Amino acid sequence: MMRSIILGKYISVQGHYVGETGNGKIQVRVGEKTFVGKPVSYTKAA
């Protein structure tokens, strides 16, 4: 599953969902790198 995370004020990353950390952040993998950040909130379309 693809997820988007926010790394900083102007930087976001989209990649394959890896897991969740204890503090509410999630991990995504892009190629060989794994990034940790706050998940982007979204709403599902009707």
TrEMBL record:
Entry superkingdom: Bacteria
UniProt protein name: Uncharacterized protein
